[in-house]
Amino acid sequence: MSITIKHLEGPLKDKLGQQSFDDAKRTILVGRSGTADIAYPEECIAVDQEHFTLNRDDGGEYRIGLPGSCDVEIDGRPAEDGEPVTSGSVITVGTGGPSFEVLLPGVTIKHLEGPLAGKRHYFPFGTEKITFGRLPRQNDAGYPEDCTIVGRNHFSLKGDENGNYCVELTPNHYVQIGKSAANNGDTVQPSSTFRLGNKTGPSFSVAVEKPQGAGKVTEDNIQVAPVHEKIDETGTKIEHTRKYGTYAIAGLATLLVALGIWSDVRDRQYQQYLNQVRQQLATGLAATEDKLSKLAEKDIPLEAQTKLLQAVYLVAKHEKNQTKGQATAWAFAPDKLATNAHVAKEIAGNEKSFLLIAPDGTKIELANARVEVHPAYFPFIDYKRTLGQLSGDKFKALDIIKEYDVAIIHLAEPLPGNPVVLELADSDHLKKLKPGAPVASVGFPMEGMTGTMVVTKAPASLRFGNIGALTDVFMSRADADKLFLIQHSVPVAGGVSGSPLIDASGMVIGIVSGGTTTKALKEVSVELKQDTPDDENPKDDKKSDKSEGQKATETFRIPSAAMINFAHRSDLLEDMISGEAKDKVAGEEAYWDSAAKSFDRYFDGAVKRLLAFAAKPDSYGVSGDTKSEIGAGTLQPAKDGSWSLAVDTHKYELEPDHVYAFIADAKSGVPLALNVKKKSGEVLRDAKDPQKSSIPQLAPVVWVTVEEKTPVEIEVFSLTDRSANYALYVYDWKLDEKTPAAADASSVEE
User: How many CB atoms sit inside 10 A of residue 217's CB?
Assistant: First the structure.
């Protein structure tokens, strides 16, 4: 049985909308890792790297797989490991994180208003007829007897063998689809809203999903020779580029772009061939970079290279009775190691599962260790999501990397033996760094590499490159004291996160955090994938439901042809060591606010959407910028770093014959929610408000109208572990008799 994921809230809603997986996909990984099938961006911090899985059993049913203590909710309640997922289920990933709806092949009915509100019905693919009425024994969706606006046999949805459904009306019974009366034989669209009886009768949504079957392998078709000949010719030219250098490679890249545009009209098989060519191109570019690396190697003293190799440790994890490599750390003191913040946050709370493996193979458990993340790391992740580009009212967040990605592992006891420690370059040295300078790094590359199963027994890898550029945290030009991001060409792959970057002085100038990659497809045997020893989801003795020899495709990351990788300047680490980092965050935030003037803000797009909604004739039919600020403040958790509910309250008085839109600007990027309450505690939200409940957002909105003068309190709240700055505004429009909303404006209790 196939499955469709419809993204409701979060970064994938606008980016993907929905995703479908056919019956060849038995395990769907949800997380932020590069191998996740439902892959959230790194800045979506509510989601873990490998948060949970959806596993299809032999009967075709999907079940939740919880690998650890990650928070997952189904329909507003905590999910349990092995719990089945039904069509229409809404899954929330992490605390206050993104959500998506699960849709299975067939028809899913979700009751929106009326006596069945909140309930749902699911009819599997192949159901011939679905009837609606007040005779539960004779109807598939039965309303209670006292719901007399619905007929005893009101209408039906009739299906065909292809999974299409049409309306079958009963005489003298009103059915509305969307905003129009239904006609007999109307085709039901994949997502439709129905209303029964009259315009205030019960309503429900209908989602129609068809199977995404893997089926049998398509037989070989006649090949379109010109495309393949061009691709084969391109592959041959790649071999020549290894002899003739970078300029030939650049020309070849141009040819590949043209081929890529042309081949988009071809089928998936051609795309796979093109991916192979792109990999060869990356190999050719890597060969060119290797020549540059050899030049850099001559500029890094042998003594510095040796010391670098002796100071680096593998960060590993006990997992499923195995020890698996995760990342890299390095010693700068006998009892302290540096790594990335995104590595440290995986260790935090799971210290007993992690260990270090020294250059000589000694294992150091981290059960009693403590990790410390740069204090600007999480705040900047939040802040940058408020900035980007607006196209109309559509917002696209900044596509920059995670900054301040620096952390310290504090050991309970000094490292065994006589540990080698690295020296950090001083501030003056760092401010004099220039593009072109040779650099070196040592780490444990694992992603897409041969030998990942033995990485815990293998030595670290020493690689060379050059500085390509120096930028601020927005990847933009800046003064020398703000150039905290080092772009370099030292090869990276998953596993090198946290590696030290040194220059010819032998001192550490940066902490490697990642690189630019692109996604490609590869064809794999289903049986071979399941039998691979390091498969994340081994099936033991269970065999695939695909016959022997069938193939499937999966995505994987390859280095970008640009060969631009990243490291964070080591004075960020020095600030943590000296205890000055926390005090400097305020200065950094002031710099962010100054730099933010160059970008569009999410809030500006939200205001455009608010005004457009207000002006719609079927909404309120009002216009004009009537915004005024009610107040501003900072939500503070009970304890910094610990999750708690933080609430601020602002007073306001509402007048009849007005429509109000309250909107908050989450200036810090921490999602907020709003409630408008009477003194009695009754929550107000207008019937026309498209948002029916309070959900944390970057710019939450509540629409309210009242029939009499009403004092209210506006609650601004968030479940947060850090301070959250905000501003609260209200739009106030006077309704008149000509305004469509004046006749039926009303508020409802949540």
Answer: 11
* Distance, CA of 647 to CA of 633 (rounded, Å): 10
To the nearest 10°, the Cα dihedral for 570, 576, 579, 584?
A: 80
Q: Which residues make Cβ contacts (< 8 Å) with residue 235, sequence separation at least 6?
A: 276, 277, 280
Q: Would you say 114 and 125 are in contact if contact means Cβ atoms under 8 Å apart?
A: no
Q: How far is CA 52 from CA 13, 26, 30, 737, in A?
A: 19, 14, 5, 54
Q: What's the token pair of residue 19? A: 């995703």
Alpha helices, H only, 300-372: 302-310, 341-347
- Look up the pTM and report it: 0.60
Taking residues 377-397, what's their average pLDDT? 90
pLDDT beyond 80 at 750: no
User: Mean of the pLDDT values across residues 225-231?
Assistant: 40
Strands (DSSP E) contained in 615-667 are 627-635, 644-654, 658-665
Q: Is the model's pLDDT at 251 over the cut of 50?
A: no
Domain 106-209, CATH among 3.30.200.20, 2.60.200.20, 3.40.50.1860, 3.40.50.200: 2.60.200.20
CATH of 3-103, one of 3.50.50.60, 3.30.70.270, 3.30.420.40, 2.60.200.20: 2.60.200.20
Would the pLDDT of 748 be above 80? no
CA atoms of 674 and 691, how far apart (whole Å)? 11
How long a stretch of residues is the chain? 750
Between strands 27-31 and 38-39, the pairing is parallel
Statement: 302-376+399-516+560-581 belongs to CATH 2.40.10.120: yes
- Please state, in angstroms and rounded to a whole number, the distance separating the CA atoms of residues 56 and 64: 9
Strand order in the sheet with 354-357: 363-365, 354-357, 312-319, 322-333, 336-339, 407-410, 370-373
Residue 148 CA from chain centroid, whole number: 46
- Give the orientation angle of helix 377-384 with respect to helix 581-595, to 10 degrees: 10
Rounded CA gap, 464 and 565, in Å? Answer: 12
Nearest to 87 by CA among 127, 47, 114: 127
Output the DSSP codes for 570-601: THHHHHHHHT-HHHHHHHHHHHHHHHGGGSEE
Query: What was the pLDDT predicted at 199?
Result: 84
C-alpha gyration radius of the chain:
29
**What's the CA gap between 355 and 329, in Å, rounded?**
11
Q: Letter for the amino acid at 711?
A: P
What's the CATH number of domain 601-749, 2.60.120.10, 2.60.120.380, 2.60.120.620, 3.10.180.10? 2.60.120.380
